[in-house]
Target: Integrator complex subunit 7
Amino acid sequence: MEKIPAACAMEWSIELEKGLRSKKPGQHVKTIEQIGPRLQQWSKEPSITMAVLDMYGLVPGEDRTFANTILLRLADAFKHGDNYTRRCILKVFLLELKHLNKKGKRYNGILAKRRVPNNVELLKRVKTVFDTGDIEAKVLALHLFGCLADLAKDSLHIRYTILLSLQSSHVSEVRASLFAAGCFCQFSEDFACIVLGILVHMICARRATSKVTFAAAHAFSKMQCSASAASRAYKAGKQLLLGSLQDELKAEMLSSLSKLASKSTTLIAEQVDLLLSFVSHDSAASLKARALKCLSFLTGSGACFVSVNRRVLFTLIHIVDDNDIPVDFQCEALRILCKIFHSMCPDMHHMDLPDLFNLVLTMKNAAQTSDKAKRGLALCLLVDILCSIKKSRKGHGSLSSEMGQALCSEFHGSPQATLLASCGDGLSNLVCQVTLLIIYYIFSPIKQTTVESDGEAIYTGNLTSDGSLSEVKECKSFLSLILHLAEEYPSAGLIALDRIRYLIQTLDGTYDKFNMENTSACGEVVEAKLGAGKPSCVFGPLESANLQISLASKLVPCMLRFANACLDIVNESGAINSEACEMLKLLAEYMQKSRFYDCSSFEIFCLCMHAYIACCCCRMTCVNPPDSDHSNVGANLGFFHNVFWAGMERLALEFTKNMLKKRSYWAAYRVGKYSCCEGLWFAAAFTFRKLIDGVQSDSSRCWLKSLLLLAGGESEIKLLLFPKAGVELISGLQTESNCEKSFTCVEEEMGQYFGEKADLHDFEGKLARVYSRICSAEEILAGSGSYVGVYYFHRWFISLRAKFLEIVMDMLGLLSSHKFTEANPASTQNMSPLILNFALKLNKLAKDYDLLATSFLDIDRRSYRSISRLALSCSVLAFCSAFALHFSNANSALYKNVLTCSLGNSEKVWKAVITKDIIERLWDMDSEITMQLQQFMTSFGEDMDLFQFRARVKSSGRIERASLEVFEIAISGVLLIQKDSRGVKDDENLQPLFMRGLQLLSDMTRNLMEIPFQVPKYFFSVRPCIGAELFFFNADSRNKHDLSVSPGFQLSLNLCIQLKNAAIETRVQVAKMHCVLAVRPSNRLSIGGKERQILCGFNPRKTDEMVELNEMLLLYIKAETGKADMMSSEAGNGVDLATAYACFEPNKKGQGFSSCLLNVSAFPEGSYQIKWHSCCIDDSGSHWSLLPLNAGAIFTIRKP
Model:
């Protein structure tokens, strides 16, 4: 358990004393600098309770005593030291001043008056320095008084000293006193009134120097003690501002009033109007610049949104559109518009169309300027507007067709641009032209190096390396804009890809022609070694022994990475047509033959694979239109991915062979990683088998061996499902092939393995061998001896796969033992309980996947989505298993006897649990099937109460969309069987329903296995996971480490939770943490088992208990109304299970404290281990589970 600052106070105090007394030169300064961050950390800690003091063995008031001791020692050093030492001490307190200014009257840090009882002694030492020191000492003392404002705000002597210093003849002393006075004004309203009058007089008198008046103007921003004080200061400052002050002083006053207004919602609208008046009128350039800066500050603070109106937009648009206004002003106006637009999104529907029209036209003109900064900001804003319009259209109707056409007719791209997407509404055409304009600016630097002469491109320019770096940076920013646009408009990505194809073709032609014909005219051609197989041309002579590298050789790799990212987005959206397929084929071929990139690199592999997938998906769409009957799809095609799966495998294998031949081992490993993430298991197994002999470290060998076993097992499943394709792939491993022939056999691929289906009845024994391999992969990682938490995700993910295969193996064994033609209700009497047991296991497995997806705070969104899809698969199969052979509406006497024997009174419970689970997962995916399931659920009298923490799948990717079709077919089939069983009384009439149910369950099991099993990208992130440790203490401080209680009493516990490995950067900001404790009487430890049990920690193979605790914790959070620990152990307590809940407010280091009561009064004597699980809620309200990285404590019930 990490120490809190209060527990370190005594140690810090001793170190400070030793450092200040040290005679070693500079040691005292080093010690002072060291104590600053410590005090800053201590100041942000919450108030310490008695429970926390007991945990660390602290005496009440001990922390406050040592804090005062540290402050007094610093004050003594300030009193007796030289001015250099005093400056060092002042820096320590200035660090805390930021915290003090931020909190204002709510400040409760280490310098708060209530936490420093001997503040008088502290102030006396500083006052002595002011009274006896020179001018510099007085200045330092006044600054320190400002830092101690909360301590000295009621001291008349200090107040008088500050006011007296305002009349000093020394400028530095007056400025220091103004600083101190401003700090005091944040805490004392009456003092603020006095100071305000002095400030006004000081500025109006015009006797003081410019430095003093500037400091006085700055002090206006500190009048934040109360709303009335802020209002008085604002009115006085505004009156001065509108008077006859110098422009420089007016600019400073604008900044001060803006800071003052940002803290008050009543003043902010008035301040915005004041700033606009300076921007709009004929003010000095410095005032306009400062007014725009202030407006940007207010907009960025978030409080300005309520004050953004048409006048603000009109003024900013006018600035951007006026060519007589300096470009710097226009860029600042564009930045403000970007901030305003971000704050308005996604509320675009509230914006008037004429305003939007003017804004788009202005951005069009600004995007065509020659100034790079203005052009970039305008394009960025234009892309944001288009994306926001698309998001707004989804929920509030589309932009009017007339408006879109008007926008498009006024928008003119570059003269060289051609409109590739002429069809569609005006908005689509506008997106097309915006994309072409961005591409034009990307290609412009390259065109500057060549000119057209009689149709031939001839080199004319000469780019230095330094100059090309800025061009490459600008190119990357423009490519990012297109990616952002393609996320909402996939057509933009296709347009960009087509232009990149044309550019690559042109550059290669220029490269060849230059090398053959123009070598003598243009200088030497030097090849720079940028890596194996990556030739790049360098034009022009050498300068200072530095090679001048062609801009094209730098831009082409950027464009290749962009093409892969763009194709990924386009493929996920499904926006591919036949024309786009032809373009993508040409793009892949040109990239492979390009002079600027290695044809066997990983990026080229990804490009070819993406292009291949796009072409196959397009072909599948032509064969299977979107409005076709899904039932025929399921019956004839199976899962669409399997139609071109073999071609993907072959392509990956060919690239891997070429990479290994060139000794590009890292590229080959990346192909293996890609293959695992796409479900290409033959290629993955081949890659890892070739790489495993070349690694040196034991940890890398264990990692590759585990991957090889996993890939080998999954490839064997593929071989069982598709024997013909699998055998051909295995035989192809020994042959030489050419990866450039990627698209020659797409048509053949569509029908070569069409309809190939293996017999499921032979799978049981073969899956047992696969199951053994998968388990071995997990065992290797478990025995690798790596740091705790490194392979937790990997082992857990593999273990869940093994559990799924085990369930499927048992199900297939049961199904293969019953012939469909002989199925009848009597023979099903023995099968029904087993099938229902499988359904419950699959439902638990789905929740296990949920817990896996939410237990790693740094997981990426795509991996989360992949795991959620696996959970949905288990939930759908659980639903089919539960209801395909279970007829709720049948009135058959024999069938009801089956239910009574197998289920008893739990029928309604498990039906509700399984149905509710699948409805929650499909809630955002398919409204039609969800409504049918809700109606089905109400048929057995269960109300819906959706719980927000269930992991749901978004139907945005091609795999998700295709999987959803398979799931819809299965669910619809089950619901139809249930409908047909309604009112059936004759046992003989149930036989066809049982036959249909058995066939549906068999088909669904096969279809589910045919869905590509893909490893999430996060699987290849090998690092310690973020988890939590929980520390238990007896609430009795006399025996805090002795967790024991007398029989018949409750166990009172103090708890400390600590995040581990929290230094890993995540997108999650923890706001609150919760914990559940549980213990059963049946878990009493045997004699001598205490030491053995305490070593047990997180075990990925045994997560059933953790899933159960997580479900309990989620229900607790849902029912929580305020104070979490008030529920204590009321819910779930009893003879079978004792539970307790605790809530934690974590500090910056992820450490929190709480207490609870565990009701074990009914437990017999003995020793018990507490099971626990924790979770956290982030700042957006999302739930994340935390892996327990230490075992629960053991307590004993014994007589005193």
Observations:
- The longest strand covers residues 1051-1060.
- The chain has a mean pLDDT of 80.
- Residues 825-853 form the longest helix (29 residues).
- The chain is about 60% helix and 5% strand.
